[in-house]
Amino acid sequence: MRIAMVSEHASPLAALGEADAGGQNVHVAELALGLARLGHEVQVYTRRDDAALPERVAVAPGVCVVHVPVGPPRTVPKDDLLPHMDAFADWMAEDWQRTGDPDVVHAHFWMSGLAALRAGRARGVPVAQTFHALGSVKRRHQGQSDTSPPERLELERWIAREADAVIATCRDEVEELADMGVRTAHVHVVPCGVDTAHFSPSGPAWDHGLPRGRRARLLAVGRLVERKGFDLAVRALPDLPDAELVVVGGPPVERLDADPEARRLRALAEELGVGDRLLLTGQRPHEAMPAIYRSAAVVLAVPWYEPFGITPLEAAACGRPLVGSAVGGLLDSVEDGVSGRLVPPRDVEALASAVRGLLADPDGAARMGRRARARAVELFDWSVVAARTEGVLEMTAARRVPDQRRGAATGRGEPGPSWLHVHAAEVDGGMRSLLGQSDRIRSWGEQLATTLVDGGRLLAVGNGGSAAEAQHLTAELVGRCFTDRRPLSAIALCAETSSLTAILNDYGPDEVFARQVEAHGRPGDVLVLLSTSGTSSNVLHAAKRGSERGLRVWALTGPGPNPLTGLADESLVVEAPSTAAVQEVQLVAIHALCAALDDALTARGLMEAGPVCRQVS
């Protein structure tokens, strides 16, 4: 694909050079590089803020930064850029006319979305939108101190409705969009990423610190602004007498004395009698951060709100447990009780209690750190994020018909792409995501072989079309899939109406599956939960009941992370935008699982004949 990225105020060159880079700069840079490694051509359009900058800068094979000459050639606060977006869009559309249209536009931030939609509609190019932060959330928490243009909220609502796809960075953002009145069928969750090679548990730890004794180090990282909640961490210190707090971020250390938030934090620490246990380091270079994370016993991220937050990912990649606020993106990046702890926002007592628990159990904290590292590699490495973004962009690009919109404007409208063409592209994207999980399918087949041959059973659960697929799975196990073998114990729950109606009548819909899991499941059995959304309440209750009863809980679900992936022991996630596409790819996953099971049984000499298809991977 030819991909046009639009990042009007955040140039990826800041992240690739020596300048201090914000989260959006890093996101755009790493995503562009990741997509280029997958074979795509990426041009990043950003505003020229220096007259000396060339129009185009090639930064890596397949990645070029294009400086759009609109507005004054100097740094301008992003909140003052709105009047320049029409000119930005028109220049970009003219550039495409000269050099060739991209296949898809991916806009970053709301003002980029305005420019992308104007240019995209002029040239007939579909648009995907990533907001990074929503004005509705910012205004709710910052009130009168919010400096965004007053029309931001209404324009964001329009962008979300008009874009061909919206790429949200967390589940919480999807709920915010729904609350804004946006239908979310075209919204896909793809998280921010982290460089798990740079941020890793291996390597030296930063040995600079406070002078007294051997205290446990608490670390907080981020811009020195009130909403990051660093004062909450300071307020927790009196209840943590054996801990010190290191805060990394803000201006360079030599300018900290002039920073209002730095002065406020130091004054608060002195007032609470913990001034000797607080260290503000100021801004630290990117290459120094892994060692700083490795020096911490616990990392803290306790903002009032956070659209996503890069600190939890960097801490996780370095194998550090984290205590964070249960807000925004932290609800996805931190698995409570597994990779860290989540506490209510602005609750100092809960924060101190969670930290105290981790410091009192260093072995448990180390286990959390290892799990955090594993989740970072599996879910948040930039290669994973780029591949998931690629799938959404390919599906978005498939919606384009050349000259469709311009033809309609002149009375020469052409028919849009048929449902079948769009659906085929969606299924193709879902299959790509499934192929990337072939090792997990093989592992599940081997685990099932052991469980079912040793007298265990499989229970399968699903609603609607997923219920039919649950029955399909159990039929293949009790019967046969590719070749003859012994019957294996497998039950599709709710396959008969008497128990279903009894449970509905006496216990309600949330217990439909959970009560059957409790009745039929035994420790060590496998519970397979099929859900396209990962949000069905009765499926979630079944997952919880299965875990409580000692079953292994596996999820086959649509785009994640979602509530079901958070409850399951292991998940197969199909990255496809529609229910129909997810269900079709899940049926392929069921056949692949049966083939992997047959392979495992054949290897143990338990099949009457060899499997038809051995190349499950």
Concise structural overview:
The chain has 617 residues and is of the alpha/beta class. 45% of the residues lie in helices and 15% in strands.
Write up this protein.
The protein starts with a strand and ends in a 14-residue tail after the last helix. An eight-stranded mixed beta sheet has the order 3-4-2-1-5-6-7-8, sandwiched between helices. Strands 11-10-9-12-13-14 form a six-stranded parallel beta sheet, with helices on both faces. The chain has 24 helices and 19 strands. The chain folds into three domains: about 1-190, Glycogen Phosphorylase B (Rossmann fold); about 215-380, Rossmann fold (3-Layer(aba) Sandwich), CATH 3.40.50.2000; about 430-605, Rossmann fold (3-Layer(aba) Sandwich), CATH 3.40.50.10490. α15 (about 380-395) packs antiparallel against α17 (about 420-435), α18 packs across α24 and α19 (about 465-480) packs parallel to α24. The chain has about 625 residues and is an alpha/beta fold. The longest helix is centred in the C-terminal third of the chain and has 25 residues, at about 580-605. Helices cover about 45% and strands about 15% of the residues.
